[in-house]
Amino acid sequence: MKANSSDRPAIRPLPVMDRARQVTDALADYVEEARLKAGDRLPAERELMAALVVGRSTIREAIRHFQALGVIETRKGSGTYLLKPVSRATIHMPLSFDTVHLRDVLLQTLEVRRGIECEAGMVAARRRTEKDLVVIEEKLDAMERVHLEKGTSGPEDLAFHLAVYDATHNPLFRQLLEQMRETFERFWEHPFDRQDFARRSFPFHRTLFNAIAAGDPEAARAETLKILDIVEEDIKEMSK
Questions:
Q1: H-type helices in the chain, by residue range?
Q2: Domains in the chain, please, with CATH?
Q3: For the chain, how are helix, strand and coil distributed in percent, rounded to 5?
Q4: In what residue span(s) does the HTH gntR-type domain sit (predicted)?
Q5: Its pTM surpasses 0.70
Q6: Per-residue model confidence as pLDDT tens digits over 62-102
């Protein structure tokens, strides 16, 4: 018996969001291929409409998506500007926290950091090259120099950890850290207005490097845990 064509499911047009996703991907590709940097201006809305052959609402949906991720901003009367590099391969993790309870937020983010950073240290110990070790030690030397001069070394500490992440040769580690970094920094720069927060963890960055240089994943994990355990102790002690 021949099926009645009226019984077949209807083929519906693609929803606007699907087109917006295509526009989002196209914009991400353009930013990467054009090598745009933070502060560079994106093409105007009309130019995007003509180039991508889509309507204004689709362009605006894609722009809102990027705005929600914090990678672009629209300035009235000026245009749309890139806040940070983006590519289709980038993993976006817009994060939100209950900013009223700082202690809880810090402990929650620490749980995430512990999992990622321990694994990154272990992978780096297995995969690092001699070139990676040179870069990591350069960042570590800079961190130690600034720390001894000023008693703190936030940017240099971050550069050290990024170098460790790069030594994993897995780009997802750096992408994850970059996506979380700006949100984390709002809480981790000087928690509880204490310049000495986590200062006791400073020596263990050198022992972490030594473990990675020795190609010892378990030692790298152990040294990373020492750093993060001190951070946890300081959160609990300083928030009393």
A1: 16-33, 45-52, 56-69, 102-127, 130-150, 154-166, 171-188, 203-213, 217-238
A2: 17-82 (1.10.10.10), 102-237 (1.20.120.530)
A3: 65, 5, 30
A4: 17-85
A5: no
A6: 888 787 667 888 888 889 999 887 776 654 455 555 555 77
